[in-house]
Amino acid sequence: MLLISWWAMSESHKRLNDPNDDRVLLLDQLPSKITLFAHGVYRVIILRQSGNIHAEHIVTGTAQQALATAMATFRRAKIDAVHVGTNTETELRIGRLYHDHRGSNEGKKVGKATISLVERAEPPAPIEWPTSMEPAMPIVSSASPVQRESLVDVSDAPEPSVSFQYVGITCDCGARFDLPADELQRERECEACGKDATLTPAQIIQVRQAATEAREEAITRYRAGEKDITVERKSKLTDAGVGLTAANIKTMAAEEAVTRLAYLKPEAVPAIVALMQDGMVEHPRAIATAYRKAGEQLSKAEKKVAGMRTNSFMSRQAFDDLSEEGKARPLAAHETTLLRAMFTENRFHRLNSHGVPEDLMKHLEGFKYDTLTRDCPFCGRVDGTVVQANDVAILPPSDCKCETANYMIGPHFDWLKGIK
């Protein structure tokens, strides 16, 4: 065993010193050696030496940005040279030169990384704004953190006080019960028939959409001179009733993530939507950190009471976003919620902008699920299966137990279709 390990280390160092051998490279040499397609959506998976997933990212932008994401993890692990396994236009596989046996937690150490091209894209055209115009929605980056006040269109007219008392639900058996508006996601059974009456994420989104419409109607009537206004909305809730469009996908994805994870209050949905505006050029961790860093910070004493490091970033606005569950993991709440929402948005765009040329459409059989977690009931069941576009679960179903709902979809072709 010792002889084999010594030989592997010796061979790796020989290749590293050979300028004509690209199988072993220093990290700083990688950017000039990769052959990944330059622009698109990339999936970055970091694996531990044990083979378990250490981290995963979806990067929308350039191949160099996707590589930088992986390289940052390797640098933190003090890995300065890697073995290059696959280096093609659609996939890059790299790993540490040899297994590190030091320490009792050797399996948890970073071992490999895979960068896969999920979808090709054209280089973005530069945007030039006329001097009299500015973007309608703030662009999120570490240089321009989003402030909550920038998300609200302020009018000179005084706003009425709008509150939602309860949501009335009628079960299929005919029994009716009222739910407090702030407990929509709570699990429950119908007291009459005993069936599960828990609302699904899609149904909760429909309820909140109706609440938003009711609020807008109430404000319109208030400005017209009415007082003490009551607005009621009635509709049949269905899992298939959510109309996802390019215009509302960010809001829908943010609503689902906030509702399902319950780390943030419902009032934080607009903030998550705004944080999604820059796509995934930056990882959600960087975007969420920039958001928490902006504005007045909690005092060191307040951070200590909240269980945070005193040198961590946490603005009062970001802390106010947190639910009681979110306060148990304050530094990860925004990041995890944002990542889940971005996975949902990515599935929508993969389904509706798959970029299949017209001459290949006749071979398109459907869309194939690609999952990472076999222990999840949903992911384990659908992994590798092909479904039609109308059957793709863009919003995570209730039996998907993955925190970030990180399953992917992609077009699947039957090249023999139509051939006799």
Question: Overview of this structure, please?
Answer:
The chain has 420 residues and is of the alpha+beta class. The protein folds into three domains: 2-120, no CATH class; 139-353, no CATH class; 356-420, no CATH class. It contains ten helices and eleven strands. The strands form three sheets. A six-stranded antiparallel beta sheet has the order 1-4-5-6-2-3, with helices on both faces. A three-stranded antiparallel beta sheet has the order 10-9-11, with helices on one face. The chain has a two-stranded antiparallel sheet with strand order 7-8. β4 (81-87) and β5 (91-96) form a beta hairpin. α6 (284-293) crosses α9 (333-352). The longest helix is centred in the middle third of the chain and has 23 residues, at 201-223. The termini are far apart. Mean pLDDT is 77; it is low at 1-9 and 125-157.
Quick description:
It is built from ten helices and eleven strands.
